[in-house]
Amino acid sequence: MSSKAQLGFNASWSMAVGGMIGGGIFATLGVVIEVAGAWAWGSFLIGGLIALATGHSYAALTVESGKPGGVYRFLREQQHERIARWTAWILILGYTLTVAVYAFTFGAYAANALGGPAWMPQGLAVASIIVLAGVNLLGVGEASTLEIIAVWGKIAILAGLAIFGLSQWDAGDLAIPEQPGWIGMVIGAGTVFMAYEGFQLLAYDYDEMADAEKLLPKVMPASILTAIVIYIAVSLGAPMLVGAEAIVEEREVALASAGRAALGMTGFILVTIAAAFSTASAINATLFATARLARSVASEGEMPAIFAKTDKAGVPYVGVLLISGVAIFLAVIGGIGELVKSASVVFLVVFALVNAIVIRRAIGQLWIAWAGCLGASLAATILLAHKLGMI
Asked: Residue 2 pLDDT > 50, yes or no?
């Protein structure tokens, strides 16, 4: 264990929740409602249950290994070096896609509040990545402190919005013109997986955690359960304020409109602040862990050695800068829907693989791993078929 370890339960939980909720509800709500309609809440529930099962597998494997690295580490320990190397590259691509999604969402909400020229959303997206990369370069202490503040702030605002909406319950507000059936809920469950990937970042922060062997099995399910509750509450409460159809039409800034409907300009400002906190903390958490994944893989010769370079404080600054640069490019050229779905496919495949490793190694609760493996595989297949226009 690193002598620099300083992430306790609150900081670790905040890093995981920040990685999930930041992109989860602000970036995906409109996308999920578009494909699942009134069953969007079911999509978040199904996705959350698969994530919960996978969190169990991640914790069991990471504790057994006693090292950071996540699925990459698990595969290497089984002597699958080539698969491990390709999996690491795929994961880094997936995380870079999520940073782009978070930045895209940050730019959309901030520009919607500030007004300005057409280039402002992209400009603010770029600025958010640059600033948060700078925070990461300062080191773990600064990054974790920001995470704790941001996470508690956004949870308070999102919970207030959800409660206000639910107090005005009208089931008709959940419907959209072309209401999907149950298959839409399953497609939506696949789509939301980018919203749940944040918990696995903890597997890469193992050496940064205090008493990780005891902490990890507690903090992973706690963070996932927090995300499930928030997602379901907001997916039911927000449509009560503006209607599901409006959320789909304004999906890039939908919750800001819901906030305005709830509390006028005050609500609009509060939700915009929550969006800024959420996306900023998600960028921060994802950059923090992804750069450390790249450092770990590079130190073992499975990636270019440049990713293993660190500064005097041990921060993998080259990885932070390279990942940030690619994310900036994707945020400028990408569209929110395709970025979300592409990232979700990546993480579904990884989730299925992690659960399969647990089954093969016979550790933890095998029935949970089987549920996670089958659920992730099915969701990945359906989402990929949907992306290809087959369903």
From this structure: no
